User: Fold this.
Amino acid sequence: MAETLHIDPSAGRAERCEALIPQLLALTEGEPNFTANQANVVAALREALGWFWIGFYLVEGEELVLGPFQGPIACTRIKKGKGVCGSAWAQNQVLLVPDVEQFPGHIACSSLSKSEVVLPFYREDVVAGVLDIDSEHLNDISEAEAQALQKMLQALEGRI
Ligand code: SME
Assistant:
């Protein structure tokens, strides 16, 4: 198991995220516990990419329940279709929100959060939860970064 992340500080965030993929595959190799793997994934993303809040919400019935995260304390449960997280789940799509105040129904776990991306992840083609990333800056998450994060989640399918 790799214990140190190799991160090129001169690379952009999308590039750094892509470079994390093989490292996360090595880190989660042979580990069947989803929680342990999710915990390492958010820690690695925080270390490599440095956003304000990075965490998983997990599907439980008709709600999302807070999973492993890095950052300040957050809302514990979000109903399907509510907020950016519940909407990404209900619509089964990535939601990139450059200004959270412009997103009707956005759930403000922290008033410092200004922009956000939420990406569903899957187990056997069913949404198992979402990865939520918040920035304290407006328009701080790019399409390229969202795509790199989606690629990472796809690579980790079955492990998280
Ligand atoms: N803003 C999210 C809630 C989760 S927190 O940002 C950690 C939403 O609207 O669903």
Remarks:
- The CA atoms of residues 81 and 87 lie 4 Å apart.
- The beta strands are 53-60, 63-70, 77-79, 95-97, 115-123, 126-135.
